[in-house]
Design goal:
Structural class of chain B: alpha/beta
Strand content of chain A: under 5%
Number of strands of chain A: 0
Number of helices of chain A: 9
Distance between the termini of chain A: 57 Å
CATH class of chain B: Alpha Beta
CATH topology of chain A: MetI-like fold
Largest sheet of chain B: 6 strands, mixed
Order of helices and strands of chain B: EEEHEEEEHEHHHEHEHEEHH
CATH class of chain A: Mainly Alpha
Order of helices and strands of chain A: HHHHHHHHH
Largest sheet of chain A: none
Helix content of chain A: over 70%
Oligomer: heterodimer
Strand content of chain B: 25-35%
Number of domains of chain A: 1
CATH superfamily of chain B: P-loop containing nucleotide triphosphate hydrolases
Strand order of the largest sheet of chain B: 8-9-10-3-11-12
Distance between the termini of chain B: 41 Å
Structural class of chain A: mainly alpha
Number of domains of chain B: 1
Number of strands of chain B: 12
Shape of chain B: globular
Radius of gyration of chain A: 21 Å
Radius of gyration of chain B: 19 Å
Shape of chain A: flat
CATH architecture of chain B: 3-Layer(aba) Sandwich
CATH topology of chain B: Rossmann fold
CATH superfamily of chain A: MetI-like
Chain lengths: ~220, ~260
């Protein structure tokens, strides 16, 4: 029983790099999207704001798996756009989806900084950019940390969907293993869970750390 | 002497509430002005318009002859943009009721950051100047402390140092003692008293510290229902005016103090 567990883990680890690489790159892109979209929703220009709002609401309002299928099956046929490998399709779908969610974290954290901070910045004649860069963002970032930690764990779990567009990640190998060793099905999926949990452990630790830093940053 | 600040027929509304109803006011370069009046009379709004924190609904404000809220674009008057506002408000500083220190920066960095970013001063010069100013307000042992570790009175003194390092020609004080515990009010007033005696700049104080206002102000304005109802030296306004609204205000005020 134990040795079969270890065997399965070893078998699943063939998919670990796919899962981890998709996780890392899509998380990085999701962060970038979050800041671009979050800040865009705070600018004066109604065109930029409107466009970003549409992006955020569409990607928040529809399911990730449907978006994945859209990018993989529909977009290439409709617009003749090829996003490259299915690895990239997976990364981009996840980044756009979670970027939309996380942009709300960016936006609301910035808005939650006391108005007096902006006013003090104006009284010291800091420019709009300088106020954002030196006064508002450093404080808002601390508020974002715990939420970002949570979302990065969610992104890791979300990567399991990419097995549905033919990527050979951990879940994919779990499925393969089960279909050739039917009696070991429960064990196979148990090991899949354990593997995801192991990868998530450092993230859980990091988001706890983020919460601590965040708590330290409040109160003037 | 040319006035450094001029308000001309200034109106300000917030939604349906007409807060300022035609303010006309000239301020001389070294003048110390105290604005008193019942709450809701628009005292704070007057100085917030000058600091560009609110935009007037109507009228003009001039700072050293420059129109603050309007700029010339090819001979036409247009609403000022950020660049224009920054160039006109560079000589104005303000201290707030709730301090508004930057909580993520040390006391020293609260002062150094604007010097380096806005005045483009070299870091070590900025540090020297900031330390000088913090010494002046009596906080030489707190350079590396964070605002959250200070008392209210200390925070407000840092806020004053931070405004002063920018060498403003006009300093605005928005009820700077209202959020303080009573026993901490004195140390903050002492700093203002020192400034009023030794510095050349114009000062406008919105305050509830009536006796203090009368002590340092060259001119006292009584604001009532959005207009300057009385204006003159402390003695003229307090002792010689027969404005019934002012008398009522003073009476209520004295009662609260006792």
């Amino acid at each position: 029983m134990f040795s079969s567990g270890v065997n399965i883990l070893e078998y699943l680890s063939q998919g670990a790099w796919t899962t981890i690489s998709i996780f890392l790159v899509s998380t990085l892109l999701a962060f970038i999207m979050a800041f671009v979209a979050g800040l865009s929703r705070l600018v004066k220009n109604p065109l930029i704001r409107g466009f970003t709002t549409i992006y955020v609401e569409i990607f928040r309002g529809t399911s990730l798996i449907v978006q994945l299928f859209w990018l993989y099956y529909a977009v290439p046929m409709l617009f003749n756009i090829n996003l490259g490998s299915n690895w990239w399709v997976g990364v981009i779908a996840i980044a756009l989806n979670y970027g939309a969610y996380m942009s709300e974290v960016v936006r609301s954290s910035i808005l939650s900084i006391d108005k007096g901070q902006t006013e003090a910045g104006i009284a010291l004649n800091l420019s709009r950019f300088q106020r954002m860069r030196y006064i508002i963002l450093p404080q808002a970032l601390r508020l974002m940390l715990p939420e970002f930690g949570n979302y990065s764990i969610q992104i890791l779990k979300g990567t399991a969907l990419v097995s549905l567009i033919g990527l050979t990640d951990i879940l994919y190998y779990g499925d393969i293993y089960r279909s050739s060793n039917l009696s070991e099905g429960p064990m196979a999926y148990m090991m899949v869970l354990i593997m995801y949990f192991i990868i998530a452990l450092p993230l859980i630790w990091l988001s706890k750390k983020g919460e601590k830093i965040s708590r330290r940053g409040v109160a003037s | 002497m040319e006035p450094i600040v001029q308000y001309k027929e200034i109106h300000k509304s917030f939604g349906d509430t007409h807060v300022l109803k035609g303010i006309n006011l000239d301020i001389r370069p070294t003048e110390k002005i105290a604005i008193i009046g019942p709450s809701g009379s628009g005292k704070t709004t007057i100085i917030r318009l000058l600091m560009t924190l609110e935009e007037p609904t109507d009228g003009d404000i001039y700072v050293a002859g420059e129109n603050l809220w309007k700029m010339d674009v090819k001979g036409k008057k247009k609403t000022a943009n950020e660049k224009h506002l920054r160039s006109v408000r560079k000589d104005i500083g303000m201290v707030f009721q709730h301090f508004n220190l930057f909580p993520h920066k040390t006391i020293l960095d609260n002062c150094v950051t604007p010097l380096v970013q806005v005045k483009k001063m070299k870091k070590d010069e900025a540090v020297d100047l900031s330390k000088q100013m913090l010494d002046r307000v009596g906080l030489s042992d707190k350079y590396e402390a964070y605002p959250s570790n200070l008392s209210g009175g200390q925070k407000q003194r840092v806020a004053m140092a931070r405004a002063l390092v920018m060498k403003p020609k006009i300093m605005l004080f928005d009820e700077v003692t209202s959020a303080l515990d009573p026993e901490l009010v004195g140390e903050v007033l002492q700093v203002i008293r020192d400034l009023a005696e030794h510095d050349e700049m114009a000062m406008i104080l919105v305050t509830h510290e009536m006796d203090f206002a009368l002590e340092i102000a060259d001119r006292v304005l009584f604001l009532d229902d959005g207009v300057i109802a009385e204006s003159g030296t402390a003695d003229e306004v307090i002792n010689k005016s027969d404005n019934p609204r002012l008398q009522e205000f003073l009476k209520r005020f004295r009662k609260e103090e006792v």
